[in-house]
Amino acid sequence: ESESFEHQGAIPRRHAYRGEGENVSPAIAWRGLPEGTRDIALVCDDPDAPRPEPWVHWVLFGIAPEVAGLPAGDASAAVAGRNTWDESGWGGPLPPEGHGPHRYRFRVYALDRRLDLAPGATQDELLGAIRGHVIGEGGIVGTYER
Description:
This protein has one helix spanning 123-130; strands spanning 28-29, 39-46, 55-63, 69-70, 79-80, 102-111, 134-144.
């Protein structure tokens, strides 16, 4: 869930990428982690980007199971991976003008082991590392249009 936007609702402009907004990461929270959770990872991507692969906006991992969420603008409880902007941390929405609404999928993974990934890992590296170790997952989708 998010206090920044409702599921299937519009993501506020302040979360959009530089020049469009303030590039502030939205608040994301979770509950009901399965017993045995040792690590939490989070990915946000845009499957509507006009390219073969979704545009990756956020890759986080190394979140302790005691953490119940991340406040807006603060992912200090996580290790940041690299997004498609080729930056570490949050890179907000910036779909092409007139391309219609894009969906931003935030997926949270509960893992049965701590990850041994270096900061700056990509989404593909993260998804490879968690394969076979996901014991729970959930998500929320927001939209953004220019």
